[in-house]
Design goal:
It is a single chain. By secondary structure, this protein is an alpha+beta fold. Helix content is 27%, strand content 29%. It has a seven-stranded mixed beta sheet.
Length: 286
Amino acid sequence: MADVITGNTQVGATKQEIIAAMVQRELKFQAQLIGTVLDVSAFAVKGAKSASFPKAGSMTVENRASGASGNAQTLTFSVDKLDFDQRAYISWVIDAVDEYQSNVDLQTEYVKRAGTAHARNLDELVLSMLDTYSGYDQAAGIDKTKILNARKWLLKNQAKLADLTLVVTPDDEALLLDINEFVRASDYGTSNIPNGVIGKIYGVQVVVHTKPDLAKSFMYSKEAVAFGLQKAPAYGEQPAIDYGVGAMKAAVDQLFGFKAMRLTEGVDSVGAPLAAGKSPLIAQIG
């Protein structure tokens, strides 16, 4: 009786899903900042090009006098619109002969590097949002005073302390290490440490970014930036016969959107109305 062999006929249909899952694992492992912003992927349904998030003002409690009518109040509604317009794409072709002669599993290496590149792109888009929409800027260099100033300003603008993140450059991390109040992640006393978090200071989690062309650090609230993933990372391939028999052109892509939230709603560092297009939930540290 012939042996039953499992080959491409049996697993070919799942090959792309398996590789896509590998990309997603790599992306989840490498991306450090996505978990620090507001994930609205539940609204990124198929067929939608954008999503709108209603927001309203606040109401005020009054102490109504006996026998007197209360004052009627009304809410003013507006919306934040998030466009799903980031068509992140990476592709490659490996010459069939070169792959055959290589002692490295090139396809696996390319897939892993594609996942890492997608993760880095997500982090850099978050940093770009922080840099563009920061509502409170301070001079370069980090110290206790600047951290406390940013923390106070964010809390005055109704940010939640538990939702704050401090993302710093490697240079500013070195300065942090000289601040006694900085507690390293290894000293938390718990194994449940968020991905990328290296420590805490004044109740704020600290993450290091390594974007080479951005020498700035920021403190921000989770609600400062919204992220919506509409199409999860997917892998596909097709023959590239021009580069030898067996050569394949492969690609990894995903579809998502980013949006800075609550622009122009708060106050600046001296209590005046915030400048147009700036976020009350993002502060530059240095």
